[in-house]
Write a structure and sequence with these properties.
The chain is α/β, with parallel strands linked by helices and 429 residues long. It is built from 13 helices and 12 strands. Among the domains are: 137 residues, 3-Layer(aba) Sandwich (Rossmann fold); 155 residues, 3-Layer(aba) Sandwich (Rossmann fold). The protein starts with 18 loop residues before the first helix and ends with a helix. Bound molecules: nicotinamide-adenine-dinucleotide. The site of nicotinamide-adenine-dinucleotide (NAD) has 22 residues, from helix 7 and strand 7.
Length: 429
């Protein structure tokens, strides 16, 4: 690392709400702190490859619809690329590029031997039948058969996809290579090579890094209140595991709205409710529906966990945030334009590439188990994942102290430094 201690705030940009711009603006600040040479900068800044495919799918009404899908491999310097596949009507290439780069930095922060990638298909899975989604998933897998592979590029679930889609992907890929290939994808169902502890891994990592941050800030979990945005895989597990640590979850939300209970929400009850209501909280009576769901972000709580979508914390609402600590379960929930405001207010942020890396860590364990042909116990998974999360947190925290920079930039510095050093050793370009 270059011995500079100068920290320059990323300049607010008009287009900072584009996640790719947000990612690049932090990347630029971190590379400046590292004093990265132009050659390495140029190698790291752009994705290795971007694949756009058009997938014809016979819909249930007999008509063929063509879906656009992407896979962006950002970087493979540390190892085969790793990253989820998102099914959503708002997927766009810049978003996938940002998410792919975040995967590179995330894997480097937690020191696992993967590069970064991400995939997405523009579709609305909530309006499609299981058969249509299966045909779409198999079509996408076939289109990507030369990209995916246990030693090349290993997909996983993201928003709109889960174990079911990963099972279809594994099956379709296995057919193309003529052999069962469980290590081609992670996040599979437990019965077909999935790992114990994977479902809750991201939320657990959010809890572990929140506890580590609270310790640094002298916050007692039992005296801490929290708001969690998003009540899907990450948000509901983070809320549950934080509440088990004594944190009072006063507010939760999903697409149906935000729900507030001054005395704390019973998270097990809320999870049970959403499980029998198509995964949604509509009509949940254990808390009061707020007039404006966005008020969750600026509510009177000590800890804020955005665990839904990108760019929810912006220059427009950052001034009003009351929380002392933000732990980012989602990828890219804070636009770069909000960074200077948050830093000015002295709020500690455990950034996405650190806080939500428990998911990819246990995905890595799943891949290792598939290759070993040996299943680990849940205790082994949890103990190893918690250790990795705590070590990564301490490394990022120490870097933020050393350079007097916010945790977010420190995480980029740790990640980019590791990838850049590996690039120097590998060379040969
Ligand atoms: P999910 O589909 O299981 O859940 C998303 C939740 O967010 C749902 O409850 C949905 O209703 C809610 N939501 C959507 N838009 C919202 C809005 N505008 N306001 C409030 N709530 C909203 O998805 P997930 O797997 O929990 O992923 C959430 C985020 O975490 C994404 O950014 C994803 O990339 C990131 N992430 C997920 C994992 C993982 O292992 N699942 C790992 C790392 C990062």
């Amino acid at each position: 690392m270059a011995a500079t201690t100068v920290y320059k705030e990323p300049a607010p940009r008009v287009d900072a709400e584009n996640p790719l711009e947000s990612m690049m603006s932090r990347f630029n600040v971190a590379t400046e702190i590292l004093g990265l040479d132009d050659e390495t900068y140029n190698v790291l800044k752009a994705p290795d490859k971007q694949i756009i495919v058009h997938i014809p799918v016979t819909m249930d009404n007999g008509k063929v619809r063509v879906f656009e899908g992407y896979r962006v491999v950002h970087n493979t310097i540390l190892g085969p690329s790793k990253g989820g596949i998102r099914y959503d009507k708002n997927v766009h290439l810049d978003e996938v590029k940002a998410l792919a780069a975040w995967m590179t930095w995330k894997c480097a922060v937690v020191d696992i031997p993967y590069g970064g990638a991400k995939g997405g298909i523009i579709c609305d899975p909530t309006t499609m039948s299981a058969g249509e989604i299966e045909r779409l998933t198999r079509g996408y897998t076939l289109a990507m058969k030369d990209v995916f592979g246990p030693d090349r590029d290993i997909p996983a679930p993201d928003m709109g996809t889960g174990p079911r889609e990963m099972a279809w992907l594994m099956d379709e890929f296995s057919k193309t290579v003529g052999a069962t290939s469980p290590a081609v994808v992670t996040g599979k169902p437990l019965v077909m090579g999935g790992s114990l502890g994977r479902t809750e891994a991201t939320g657990r990592g959010v809890m572990v890094s929140a506890l580590a941050a609270m310790k640094k800030l002298g916050m007692d979990p039992k005296q801490t209140s929290a708001a969690v945005q998003g009540f899907g895989n990450v948000g509901s597990w983070a809320a549950k595991l934080l509440s088990e640590q004594g944190v009072k979850i006063k507010c939760i939300s999903d697409v149906s709205g935000a729900y507030w209970n001054e005395n704390g929400i019973n998270i097990d009850e809320a999870v049970a409710y959403k499980n029998v209501h198509k995964g949604r909280l509509d009509g949940y009576t254990g808390a009061t529906l707020m007039d404006n769901a966005d008020d969750l972000l600026t509510s009177e709580v000590d800890l804020l966990v955005p665990a839904a979508v990108e760019d929810v914390i912006t220059e427009h609402n950052a001034h009003d945030i009351k929380a002392k600590l933000i732990v980012e379960g989602a990828n890219g929930p804070t636009a770069a334009s909000a960074d200077p405001i948050i830093n000015e207010k002295g709020i500690m942020v455990v950034p996405d590439i650190l806080a939500n890396s428990g998911g990819v860590t246990v995905s890595y364990f799943e891949w290792v188990q598939n290759r070993q042909g040996f299943k680990w116990s849940e205790d082994m998974v949890t103990e190893r994942a918690d250790r990795i999360m705590n070590e990564a947190f301490e490394k990022v925290y120490a870097t933020s102290q050393k350079y007097n920079i916010p945790m977010r930039i420190a995480a980029y510095v740790v990640a980019i430094d590791k990838v850049a050093q590996t690039y120097k050793f590998r060379g040969g370009f």
